[in-house]
């Protein structure tokens, strides 16, 4: 398999492609440095134009550290297909990945409520109008962070397409090769035990109608 | 949304659960430190018992650095469901994540061929017997790395289950809540244009019959 060479070969500079990837996923990996060692934490994120919103508990150590301005990078990956080539050396995966480099900014109190509402709205559009507003206590317990998407602050890599041919691979012509697509899909909503008699709300209906 | 508090709450120490997560995914994010800043690279990996095998081009800078013994951590995440709670504050995701901490070991020449074959076999069992062996030139171009899974070298977090109840959330009883499952599935194999008349090989048939 040959994933890193493909990574190096296929940088993408189209901002629309970056946005499409970021908008298609919910979770990224936030990497930062703590006492010289790498620290990585999976994080929900939501894109708001030229920034990514993240949030977490005010008690979370890693998050407090990046909130204080330590360098950080958020990595988002979508796996699109297994690439079964005529040789193991040429076999790989089709994927899209992006890294967005910080520092993260902790949002001040007067921006936090709006940012957290927006975070919820991006992840599940329409939901904030179906539930009560966050309470002051909830807001006080939540750190809201923004990671700006600066023109020189992101990298995107894409591997897409067919495997190397038998001739390119130095392989016999009768070895099957092709793609095995990998898909992420949303299942039907499952009500909580106390909600089985309630109608599925519009936000959830729209989400699952549109799919992941 | 409240993902980080859940992360902090739900550590898992069951090694079998770790192995099941690692074996269910293909791609992780490798985080290391370069000149004080975090560097993150998506990587294919394959579990071989108590170690994870990774590989890449001998020309890849980040990989050469971690191969030289720099601290590194591989993060693997599976998103299982969106958790739609009666409030935005309690809404979150169900997921499984693992971090496996290095350093990575570069495998010596006499172990590399076997490790790379094993890597291919874990990702697509049976494939190595369907294709020609790797050539000396291919092997020379490929770095093989091992990340030991040490008893004190990994952390797993799991969020699973229903959202907080209306009473726990301080919400009205008539607000729907529940889960939206997220599934990763494999599609039917798609032959490369030059392979449309060839039978799909057993390795690929087994993979897609078993699903992701």
Automatic annotation (TrEMBL), chains A, B:
SUPFAM superfamilies: FMN-binding split barrel (SSF50475). InterPro entries: Pyridox_Oxase-rel, Split_barrel_FMN-bd. It holds the Pfam family Pyridox_ox_2. Gene3D superfamilies: Electron Transport, Fmn-binding Protein, Chain A (2.30.110.10). This is Pyridoxamine 5'-phosphate oxidase family protein. It comes from Nocardioides agri.
